[in-house]
């Protein structure tokens, strides 16, 4: 904490500034060490010992699984299923295919369903206390072969099981669950939980991906995760995890197969994914060649180690939630962990410590309570402006390179991430440089720590697993600051600044490094908040770089430090634009669909791009409404353009029976797609003045919660080749209408379609290259 200093010449101030530079360089080195320490290890070769995980051996499974796009219901996915059955059977597991229909509620009056083929294998234990489930999904998204998402997860489990069978038998049963239709609707996991005889409950380890590289992160757990977090910390050789990530994910609407099993109520467990390289996610570029084998090595190392650890434990205890959640965060090679009961005491201690610092400043005559309070109010400025500036950086990059508009992250985001961090630092440093002479370095630093303590308390109340982010820097900063103020020693001040900075870096730098790729530069404001907290905690260390405010040095001289940060931000942004260029291997993502309304004989091009790129702009000419919702396309917020109606056959609807029973109308229908490779069928039933009472599709009843209104919408993935059986029970005398839409992937061959240029490709979003044909049947 900066103490009062007497005037001295600029020359006398040089040794102090040199010392400050050393401290800042050391802190930068510490930050680099924490970030580098998160990175995955080198892949092990194919001749690695049989009991170890080898990314080279696992990669052969990735190549086979991701040889082609293999969506649920496709012949390519059938090939994958047969390969997985052969592999697990060859390893000695009792392996079966579960053929079923999964169902997931999608909201009021909406249901998503799919015909699935789950691969389930059992490695029996010697004296089971429960079941350990190893889960990944074997289907791909419709646009790409899914090497990372989720052939990597499948391969990690296959190689882990091979290593397990090469060693002594485990105590507990291990059930390998390779689900289908995760990309469509999580329906494979639902079908497993709902009807498979082995889905009796236990501990689940799920493995996912939302990118192509980076460290695997254990980002989600069941409630009451204290015992599971301890097992993870003890066993995982690459323990990258954050209780803050768990809190964030619980608040998001995102789901994976793991979510389905948690909702079932009989399972506990942990969910792991790698998230860097998001530009290739779900896209044609998610190929085996792009998958980072170091990431695969880390994923498999953790999967194997956790399987061995949990395979030998008493699972009866772990299969039940613990009394509470743990708080944990990564340091290179380790995981700091403590009980959730420490959260409030730690947050309270931070508040008390900051209050003690404020009183120490007053007692030593460094700053009055009024001045420190004013400084705290002024600290709101960087807290608000710095994240906005980081978001503004992304807006500027999109303005320079419009192809970024539809991306979560650029293809090569490294320089841009450094630019975002430097932008945040620049805002904080400009604010500090403008105010430090008038308000004083000490009250500004104390006011900033006050906000960290308050944020720690707020997080303790609403997201306890994230309170550590602000509590530790505030507590350490306030304690060392108080010692510095009371000691009035330059050496103590420098040491305190270094300790405060080290605490902030150790806690916050890894989190910032994980959250920047997690949320992407397109949402840079959110992860930038973590960087702002670090910058505010680093103020005592950064103060060492500034000229003495009492030495009569000009404000222009004090602006040299923030000017350096501005220059770094600008230079890194320019370097990023030079390095990250669009080409065939790193294309501009584009979203375009084709909708044919057979009732009217009209067709339209449709895009969900908010600002259509040059290629998409050839087909759409402005915002438009579709008048209704279609798969992956809403009736609003789309760009549309006229299209020539193609000769595409709509699905055929056959009424097999229509009876009146007990005042209700019972309808039995068959819906038969008449195009090849139909991926999904969307059914919308509307009863004028009546109610849909019950529905049954593909042999599976629709959940009661979805029926009971005057309309029902069902999206069914992987419909059978011989048609989809639909049973409806309706009340009311009004007419019943059925709108049927089917969907096929691929726009080639449509009238007026112009192939994408080499540097433009399909975006990694559902419905980006969809051909929809819709028709309404009046059922009377």
UniProtKB/TrEMBL annotation:
Question: Which Gene3D superfamilies does the record cross-reference, listed alphabetically?
Answer: Zn peptidases
Keyword Nucleotide-binding part of the UniProt annotation: no
Q: From the Swiss-Prot or TrEMBL record, what is one GO molecular function term?
A: metalloexopeptidase activity
Superkingdom of the source species: Bacteria
The record lists the membrane-crossing segments as 342-361, 373-394, 414-435, 442-463, 469-487, 494-519, 525-546, 558-579
Q: Name one Pfam family in it.
A: Peptidase_M28
Any single biological process term in GO: proteolysis
Respond yes or no to whether keyword Signal is given for this record. Answer: no
Keywords, in A-Z order: Membrane, Transmembrane, Transmembrane helix
* InterPro entries linked: M28_fam, Peptidase_M28
* Residue ranges of every copy of the Peptidase M28 domain listed in the record: 118-306
Protein name as it appears in the record? M28 family peptidase
Q: Which organism is it from?
A: Blastococcus saxobsidens
Q: What is the lineage of its organism?
A: Bacteria, Bacillati, Actinomycetota, Actinomycetes, Geodermatophilales
């Amino acid at each position: 904490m900066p103490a009062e200093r007497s005037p001295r010449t600029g020359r006398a101030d040089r040794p102090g500034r040199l010392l400050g530079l050393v401290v800042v360089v050391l802190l930068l080195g510490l930050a680099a060490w924490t970030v580098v320490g998160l990175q995955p290890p080198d892949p092990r070769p194919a001749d690695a010992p049989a009991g170890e995980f080898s990314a080279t051996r696992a990669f052969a499974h990735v190549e086979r699984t991701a040889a082609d796009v293999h969506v649920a219901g496709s012949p390519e996915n059938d090939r994958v299923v047969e390969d997985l059955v052969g592999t697990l059977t060859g390893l000695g597991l009792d392996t079966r295919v579960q053929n079923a229909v999964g169902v997931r509620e999608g909201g009021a009056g909406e249901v998503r369903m799919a015909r699935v083929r789950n691969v389930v294998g059992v490695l029996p234990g010697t004296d089971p206390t429960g079941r350990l489930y190893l889960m990944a999904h074997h289907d791909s998204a419709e646009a790409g072969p899914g090497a990372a998402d989720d052939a990597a997860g499948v391969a990690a489990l296959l190689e882990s099981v091979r290593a397990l069978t090469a060693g002594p038998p485990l105590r507990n049963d291990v059930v390998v669950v390779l689900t289908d239709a995760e990309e469509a609707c999580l329906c494979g996991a639902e079908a497993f939980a709902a009807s498979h005889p082995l889905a009796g409950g236990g501990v689940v380890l799920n493995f996912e991906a939302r990118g192509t590289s980076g460290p695997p992160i254990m980002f989600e757990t069941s409630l009451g995760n204290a015992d599971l977090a301890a097992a993870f910390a003890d066993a995982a050789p690459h323990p990258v995890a954050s209780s803050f990530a768990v809190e964030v994910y619980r608040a998001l609407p995102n789901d994976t197969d793991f979510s389905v099993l948690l909702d079932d109520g009989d399972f506990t467990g942990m969910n792991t994914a790698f998230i860097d390289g998001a530009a290739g996610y779900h896209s044609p570029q998610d190929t085996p060649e792009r998958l980072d084998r170091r990431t695969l090595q880390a994923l498999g190392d953790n999967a194997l180690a956790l399987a061995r650890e949990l395979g030998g434990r008493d699972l009866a205890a772990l299969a039940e939630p613990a009394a509470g959640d743990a708080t944990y965060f990564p340091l290179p090679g380790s995981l700091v962990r403590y009980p959730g009961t420490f959260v409030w005491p730690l947050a309270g201690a931070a508040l008390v410590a900051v209050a003690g610092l404020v009183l120490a400043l007053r007692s030593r005559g460094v700053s009055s309570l009024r001045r420190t309070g004013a400084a705290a109010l002024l600290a709101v400025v960087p807290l608000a402006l710095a994240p906005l500036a980081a978001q503004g950086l992304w807006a500027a990059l999109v303005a320079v390179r419009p192809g970024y508009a539809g991306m979560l992250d650029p293809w090569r985001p490294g320089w841009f991430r450094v630019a975002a961090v430097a932008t945040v630092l620049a805002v904080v440093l400009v604010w500090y440089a403008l105010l430090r002479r008038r308000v004083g370095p000490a009250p500004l630093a104390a006011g900033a720590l006050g906000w960290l303590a308050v944020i720690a308390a707020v997080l303790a109340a609403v997201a306890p697993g994230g309170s550590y982010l602000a509590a530790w820097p505030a507590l350490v900063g306030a304690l060392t600051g108080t010692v510095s103020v009371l000691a009035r020693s330059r050496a103590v001040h420098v040491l305190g600044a270094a300790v405060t900075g080290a605490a902030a870096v150790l806690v916050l730098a890894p989190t910032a490094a994980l959250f920047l790729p997690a949320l992407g530069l397109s949402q840079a404001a959110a992860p930038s908040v973590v960087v702002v907290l670090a910058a505010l905690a680093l103020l005592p260390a950064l103060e060492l770089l500034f000229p003495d405010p009492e030495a009569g040095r000009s404000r222009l001289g004090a602006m040299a430090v923030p000017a350096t940060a501005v220059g770094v931000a600008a230079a890194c942004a320019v370097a990023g634009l030079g390095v990250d260029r669009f080409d065939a291997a790193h294309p501009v993502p584009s979203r375009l669909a084709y909708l044919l309304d057979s009732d009217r004989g009209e067709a339209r091009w449709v895009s969900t791009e908010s600002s259509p790129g040059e290629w998409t702009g050839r087909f759409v000419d402005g915002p438009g409404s579709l008048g209704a919702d279609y798969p992956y396309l809403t009736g609003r917020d789309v760009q549309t353009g006229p299209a020539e109606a193609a000769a595409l056959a709509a699905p055929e609807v056959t009424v097999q029976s229509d009876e009146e029973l007990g005042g209700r109308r019972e309808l039995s229908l068959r819906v038969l797609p008449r195009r090849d490779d139909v991926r999904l069928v969307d059914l919308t039933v509307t009863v004028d003045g009546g109610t849909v009472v019950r529905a049954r599709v593909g042999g599976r009843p629709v959940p009661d919660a979805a029926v009971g209104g005057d309309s029902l919408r069902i999206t069914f993935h992987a419909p059978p080749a011989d048609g989809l059986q639909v049973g409806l029970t309706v009340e009311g005398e009004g007419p019943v209408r059925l709108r049927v839409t089917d969907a096929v992937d691929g726009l080639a061959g449509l009238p007026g379609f112009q192939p994408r240029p080499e540097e433009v490709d399909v975006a990694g979003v559902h419905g980006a290259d969809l051909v929809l044909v819709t028709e309404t049947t009046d059922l009377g």
